[in-house]
Each structure stands twice: as C-alpha cells, then as structure tokens.
C-alpha cells in the first residue's frame, strides 16, 4: 500500500484568478494537457478534474443550463452540477471528486490540490463484525485526550494532562480523572495529531517519560516534524514512530489505524481513522479540511473540535475598526458559522455517533481576564442540539471527564441508558487551580538569561530566523503582563525588506505592524528557538497594523517555518 501524497495539479497566477468568470470556468494545464473545471461564486471557489466518472468523457457547457451551474459530458450526456459536485443526470448516481482550491493570501494565486489516493481507507476493506459489550469503549479524559479501548489494546489521543499550552495562554478547563496519568503510562500506543502544545504537551510527556520512555507514539509524516522540539525540550522518549499518510498501521489482528493530512495545513496538521473488526472511528481533531474534505461516510463514531477561539484574532488587536462592539459581533458571527459548518459536516458524513471535543480550554490566568471575557466559544451541548435537530438519527455525546461510551451497546440500542456511563456523583469536572507559578517561573528564568543584556541579540535572532525580502516593517515592544512598556525593555524596528534594524521607520511606502509582547514569553521563544504560536495563539501579544492586512507570509514563517536547527544561541554565546 503506497503512501498518500498531496500534489498541486494546476496553478493560476493572480491575474488569471481575477479573470475568472462567476459560474463555470474551463482551464487547462499547459504542461501536461489535463483539464479542470473551476466554479466561482462571489469569493467561493470549487474545482474538479474535467472528466466524467461514467466512462471518462470530457465535460462541456450545458446549453440547457439556465443558472450556469451544470456541465454535460460529450460521451453519454451525463450532467454534473459543479456548484454541488453532484451528478444530476442520471440522478442519485455519483459525486464528483473535488479538488482543494487554495487561494493565497499573499500573492492572490490559486492552486488546485489533489490527494492520491483520495480515499485510502477503502484499501483492504474489512466487514464489520458483531461486538460484545465493553469490547470497544471511549473514555473522555480532557480537551482532545480520549482513551480508546479496543479488544485488549488501549490507545490514547493527544494527551494534555498538566501544565499550560501556548506558553501561558491556555489552561485545561476540565479536571482530568485522578488516574489519567496512570492510564496514559499503561497505554499500548499514543497518537499525537500535531505540534501545537494543547495536543503535544511537553509537561505531560516529561512526566510520562519518567515512567515509560519507550511507550510507542505515532505521528504523521508532516513537513514540519511533530517532534521538532524534542531534543531541546529535554524529554526522553525513545519510541516515536513517524508514519506515512494514508497507510493502514496494523496493531493486532483486529485493530489498525491510518493517519491523514489536513487540506489547509498539510505541513503540520493531521487526523485519524481507527478501525477495529470493521468498525471505524474518525477523529478529525483540529483539521480545517481533513483529507481535503474527503472522509468516510457512516463511521461508527466521529469526533471533532467545535469551540473556536483558538487564535489571537481579533481579541489581541486594537486601533482602527477593532472596537469592542466590532470584536463582539465578529466573534459571534464566526462562532455561529463554525457551529453551522460542523452541523453540516456531520449531516453530510452521517456517523452513527458524534462527539465534540478538543475545545475544552480556558484563559485561566488573572492577567488574561480580558481575553477570557471577550473570547466566547461554542458550547458542545449547543452543537449537539443543532445536530440532533438536523439529524435525529445520530446519537450525540457531550463528554465530561471520566465518562465512557460503549460502542457495542450504542450500535445495538442507542436509547439504552448504559451506552454512556457518567462519572460518579461528586466527581470534579472543572479545574479551579492550575499551578500558575510553577510554569510562569520557567518563563521568567528565560527572560533573565545572559544574552538579553546585549542588544545585539536582536539582529542575531532575526538573521537566524531568515525571513526577508518582504516589504513589512514591525515595531516590537517588550511589555509586562498587562502590556505596558517595560522599563529597561527593548523597543526596536525590523525592516524585512532588507532585514535591517533602523532607528526610525523608512520613508518608502511599506506595511507596518506594532507588536507588544510579554517580555517573559518573547524571550522564552527567542532563547529556545520556539515558534510564535506561543505569542499569537497564546494571547501573549497585542497588535495594530497599517494597513489592516494579514501578512500570511510573515506569520506563516514565524509560526511554522522557523529553522529546525536551533544553533543561533549556541553560536551567540
């Protein structure tokens, strides 16, 4: 079985993108001669290969089409509605395989991306066998951490059990069961979806490594390695397995799993299919468009994120339109869109059981009270209610720490009260203490490192980072926890056009951002060569920009593409 790969099959430059008509567009790749259909309406784009699924005929415009959505095959006159990717003649026949349309925020270009094979889970199919009570159970631990028991094997997903995520911005909302760490150390294998610290928790893994450094951990073969920071972290894990996408990994005779890439962030994000005796569990975790939107229908259990709020935007922005009322309206609309999207996704995939998870975090530190009050999130219960209204046949599960779902009982009789076992009365559900000082002291220690006595670290750091030839100037100001300029802190400009460090802004036209960073977090990031997710996703900065434009190329570099070799400080020292 060959590894699944992602390939760009057609690229249009910005001028060609602007030339696309509303409705149906036919495009040809001049290099290989393959043809594609692009459907555009307002700012939304859908695309597919120009090839009929029946017998491979070419589509042309349908002269009987009155609304500009349908194409007709030249062989047998089959018709495809490109707006929905459904074949309308004959009806109820096929769905067209859709390509991922990726529109660049930086240069306006458009890439059509294809996964091959598109449905790798169909390889080596297995018939579903009858299950016995207790044979497959899912136990919710906290946030994105689930324990899957399948036969005599135990598998853990994304264990974040202690400490903060994103430096000090996120803290666990739910109290993990008292035996959570024991469960983790006794697992047969662990799946970690991606490198973000609410999924790959080094404080958790540090404690785990003292008990079982050789526990098998599986991650996808992303271009930014999931464990890129392992050596620097000092955590001793000796059995990390990087596996190719779209290939079944056999655990035993009945249990296997497959890791799939995300369509939007294939360089870092993954999702998972687990199969036991022909019964599938789909865990899409944080993927924006898992597997480019192609997912198995009718799985036994589906789990996904639901909450929103996993970004500094717009809470950490100020100036211009970023009033409190604008932020509140934006956040409300975004959460509503996410809830509707998740409802429609579940409706389209028709899993037997759906569980929202991977959204149970809180901005618990007192200095982040503003973020906590502003950054409203979707409720898992509200999403499940929306799904039940849309799909009353789907069983929904709103988990609390320690609650257990028995798949065999759910498939036999979803109304059986024993399907979901809740934790005993009196079990602590929500955390009320987080050991703030223990983790914030580590950040403070970084801030007082010897190198920060010398201003030359600034030039050294940004040269190491390697981002340049981009017409953006940033002003970085070190602040205290309340974002007030720090007495004796650094306040400097970086011009990324030529990677210089001017005393004043250049006179030429340029994009400009002011970024106020909590000094302890920024210096921790610098000292350890960490990604800027700790700053941006962790709500540890405040920003304004002129013009009000998101600089994808800049943020993508500092959040994903910083050098893997963390040698600059060694050289500097």
Automatic annotation (TrEMBL):
Gene3D superfamilies: Ribonuclease Z/Hydroxyacylglutathione hydrolase-like, Rieske [2Fe-2S] iron-sulphur domain
Uppermost EC category: oxidoreductase
Keywords of this entry: 2Fe-2S, Electron transport, Iron, Iron-sulfur, Metal-binding, Oxidoreductase, Transport
UniProt cross-references to CDD domains, sorted A to Z: Rieske_CMP_Neu5Ac_hydrolase_N
Highest taxon in the source lineage: Eukaryota
Listed GO MF terms: 2 iron, 2 sulfur cluster binding; CMP-N-acetylneuraminate monooxygenase activity; metal ion binding
Catalysed reaction, written as an equation: CMP-N-acetyl-beta-neuraminate + 2 Fe(II)-[cytochrome b5] + O2 + 2 H(+) = CMP-N-glycoloyl-beta-neuraminate + 2 Fe(III)-[cytochrome b5] + H2O
E.C. designation(s): 1.14.18.2
Pfam families: Lactamase_B_3, Rieske
Pathway in which the depicted protein is active: Amino-sugar metabolism; N-acetylneuraminate metabolism
Rieske domain segment(s): 8-110
Matching InterPro entries: CMP-Neu5Ac_hydroxylase_Rieske (IPR037339), Cnh (IPR027033), RibonucZ/Hydroxyglut_hydro (IPR036866), Rieske_2Fe-2S (IPR017941), Rieske_2Fe-2S_sf (IPR036922)
An example Gene Ontology biological process: N-acetylneuraminate metabolic process
GO CC annotation: cytoplasm
Entry function: Sialic acids are components of carbohydrate chains of glycoconjugates and are involved in cell-cell recognition and cell-pathogen interactions. Catalyzes the conversion of CMP-N-acetylneuraminic acid (CMP-Neu5Ac) into its hydroxylated derivative CMP-N-glycolylneuraminic acid (CMP-Neu5Gc), a sialic acid abundantly expressed at the surface of many cells.
Family designation: Belongs to the CMP-Neu5Ac hydroxylase family.
Protein name: Cytidine monophosphate-N-acetylneuraminic acid hydroxylase
Organism: Cyprinus carpio
């Amino acid at each position: 079985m060959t590894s699944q790969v992602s390939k760009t099959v057609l690229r249009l430059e910005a001028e060609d993108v602007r030339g696309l008509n509303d409705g149906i567009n036919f495009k040809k790749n001049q290099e290989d001669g393959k043809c594609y259909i692009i459907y555009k309406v307002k700012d939304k784009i859908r695309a597919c290969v120009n090839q009929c699924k029946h017998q491979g005929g070419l589509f042309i415009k349908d002269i009987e089409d009155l609304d500009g959505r349908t194409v007709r095959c030249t062989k047998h006159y089959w018709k495809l509605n490109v707006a929905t990717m459904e074949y309308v003649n004959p009806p109820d026949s096929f769905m067209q395989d859709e390509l991922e349309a990726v529109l660049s925020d930086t240069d306006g270009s458009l890439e059509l991306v294809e996964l091959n094979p598109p449905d790798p889970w169909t390889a080596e199919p297995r018939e579903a066998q009858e299950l016995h009570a207790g044979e497959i159970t899912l136990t919710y631990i906290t946030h994105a951490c689930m324990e899957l028991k399948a036969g005599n094997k135990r598998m853990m997903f994304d264990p974040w059990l202690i400490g903060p995520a994103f430096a000090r911005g996120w803290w666990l909302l739910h109290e993990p069961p008292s035996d959570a760490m024991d469960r983790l150390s006794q697992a047969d294998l662990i799946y970690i979806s991606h490198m973000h610290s609410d999924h790959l928790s080094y404080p958790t893994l540090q404690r785990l490594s003292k008990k079982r450094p050789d526990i098998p951990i599986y991650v996808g073969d992303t271009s930014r390695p999931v464990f890129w920071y392992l050596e620097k972290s000092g955590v001793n894990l000796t059995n990390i397995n990087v596996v190719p996408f779209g290939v079944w990994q056999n655990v035993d005779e009945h249990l296997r799993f497959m890791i799939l890439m995300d369509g939007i962030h294939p360089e870092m994000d993954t999702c998972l299919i687990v199969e036991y005796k022909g019964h599938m569990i789909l865990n899409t975790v944080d993927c924006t468009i898992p597997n480019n939107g192609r997912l198995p229908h009718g799985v036994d259990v589906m789990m996904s994120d639901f909450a929103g709020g996993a970004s500094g935007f717009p809470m950490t922005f100020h100036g211009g339109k970023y009033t409190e009322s604008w932020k509140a309206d934006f956040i409300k609309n975004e959460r509503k869109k996410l809830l509707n999207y998740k409802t429609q996704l579940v409706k389209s995939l028709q899993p037997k059981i759906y569980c929202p998870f991977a959204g149970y975090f809180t901005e618990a530190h007192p200095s982040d009270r503003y973020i906590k009050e502003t950054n409203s999130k979707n409720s898992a219960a509200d999403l499940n209610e929306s799904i039940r209204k849309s799909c009353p046949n789907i069983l929904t599960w709103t988990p609390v720490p320690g609650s257990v779902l028995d798949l065999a009982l759910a498939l036999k009789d979803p109304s059986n009260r024993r399907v979901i076992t809740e934790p005993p009365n009196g079990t602590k559900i929500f955390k009320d203490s987080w050991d703030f000082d223990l983790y914030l002291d580590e950040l403070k220690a970084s801030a007082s490192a010897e190198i920060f006595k010398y201003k030359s670290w600034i030039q050294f750091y940004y040269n190491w980072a390697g981002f340049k030839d981009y017409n953006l100037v940033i002003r970085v100001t070190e602040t205290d926890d309340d974002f007030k300029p720090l007495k004796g802190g650094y306040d400097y400009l970086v011009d990324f056009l030529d990677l210089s460090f001017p005393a004043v802004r250049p006179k030429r036209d340029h994009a400009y951002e002011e970024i106020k960073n909590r000094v302890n977090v920024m210096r921790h990031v610098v000292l350890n060569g960490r990604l800027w997710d700790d700053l941006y996703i962790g709500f540890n900065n405040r920003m304004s920009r002129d013009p009000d434009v998101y600089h994808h190329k800049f943020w993508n570099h500092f959040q994903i593409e910083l050098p893997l070799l963390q040698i600059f400080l060694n050289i500097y020292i």
